Inverse folding.
């Protein structure tokens, strides 16, 4: 058994240690295995680690639970992917509160060039279901990954339509991988395993308690390029997901509905408050995301780095290495610049004519 991976998992079974602390202790010590060999005094010097947490790390108790979890994962064909693994979804890694571990089951390509989340009310109307079917059907030529939350209503309809039209689809759960919720959707989940699957950050046995779902929503928002809100009341999980997606600089779209309709109020308010693009057809997504543009002929772009300041050179090096359009979140992550500062650097490079802004919050080298 890989001791470092066992140590990584053991960190998740320590009371008081969440995603932030897991990343902190590994960053400061160099590896998960070294965390458990670090003296108490040095552990307490790490931000977020107090005496109680340091004692919990050093008492050795989490390893027995971690071994049981690994055996359960192997038995159930569930893959554990840690934050520092190459297989960890790059889109999710860009968000500030990314989960430090994911449980995966199925055949999932998180690096699909196009990723769309579809969310909405559990009380989906005929209108909402029609919009989902129309959108998924018209998205099919783009072959996006379809992401939702496996819940009743809009979510499960999005998964079913993705399966129907041969698209990969992923259900993000607010429970453990052995607690598919709701149970009525197990048959759909099994179909999803062939081209997609399920993902959760929760350990085996975790019940679908209410407090898990806002956390689940940040994963849905983090995994997508575009978030589509189909139907939503004035309050609810879909609006929470939209709020999170906006904070991650994702493009949010909302289907408008009739004034006075309960499950159109949330979408109409998103559009009215400029928190979502108006979504009337797939053409709106294609335009905003730049998906309708003809593929340009590949040509080598060269840029001399002379005459640019340190931050500009850092950004240009990332873009030269990528050799394609780059999302602003990926630029921020790879350049180690906060989005607020990066936006200023990019604006300066645009003025200098070396970088150009593209649809879908992407940037490319000019020329």
């Amino acid at each position: 058994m890989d001791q470092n991976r066992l140590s990584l998992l053991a960190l998740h079974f320590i009371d008081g240690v969440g995603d932030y602390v897991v990343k902190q202790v590994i960053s400061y010590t160099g590896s998960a295995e070294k965390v458990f060999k670090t003296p108490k005094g040095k552990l307490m010097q790490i931000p977020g680690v107090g005496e109680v947490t340091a004692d919990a790390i050093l008492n050795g108790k989490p390893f027995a639970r971690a071994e049981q979890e690994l055996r359960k994962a192997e038995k159930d064909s569930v893959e554990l992917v840690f934050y520092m693994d190459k297989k960890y979804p790059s889109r999710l890694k860009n968000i500030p509160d990314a989960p430090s571990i994911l449980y995966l089951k199925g055949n999932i390509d998180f690096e699909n060039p196009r990723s769309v989340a579809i969310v909405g009310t559990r009380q989906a109307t005929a209108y909402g279901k029609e919009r989902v079917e129309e959108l998924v059907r018209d998205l099919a030529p783009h072959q996006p990954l379809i992401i939702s939350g496996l819940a009743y209503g809009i979510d499960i309809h999005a998964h079913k339509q993705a399966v129907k039209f041969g698209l990969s689809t992923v259900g993000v759960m607010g429970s453990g991988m052995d607690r598919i919720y709701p149970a009525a959707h197990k048959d759909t989940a099994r179909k999803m395993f062939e081209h997609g699957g399920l993902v959760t950050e929760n350990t085996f046995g975790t019940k679908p308690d209410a407090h898990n779902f806002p956390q689940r929503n940040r994963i849905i928002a983090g995994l997508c390029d575009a978030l589509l809100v189909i139907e939503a009341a004035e309050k609810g999980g879909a609006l929470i997901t939209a709020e999170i997606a906006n904070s991650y600089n994702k493009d949010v779209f909302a289907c408008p509905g009739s004034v006075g309709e309960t499950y159109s109020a949330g979408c109409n308010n998103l559009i009215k408050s400029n928190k979502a693009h108006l979504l009337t057809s797939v053409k709106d997504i294609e335009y905003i995301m730049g998906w309708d543009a003809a593929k340009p002929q590949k040509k080598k772009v060269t840029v001399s780095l002379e005459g640019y300041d340190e931050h500009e050179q850092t950004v240009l090096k990332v873009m030269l290495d990528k050799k394609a359009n780059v999302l602003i979140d990926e630029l921020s992550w790879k350049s180690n610049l906060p989005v607020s500062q990066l936006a200023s650097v990019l604006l300066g490079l645009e003025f200098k004519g070396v970088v150009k802004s593209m649809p879908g919050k992407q940037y490319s080298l000019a020329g």
Observations:
- The radius of gyration is 22 Å.
- The chain is about 45% helix and 15% strand.
- The chain has three domains: 3-74, 105-289, 310-365.
- The domain at 310-365 is CATH 1.10.10.10 (Arc Repressor Mutant, subunit A).
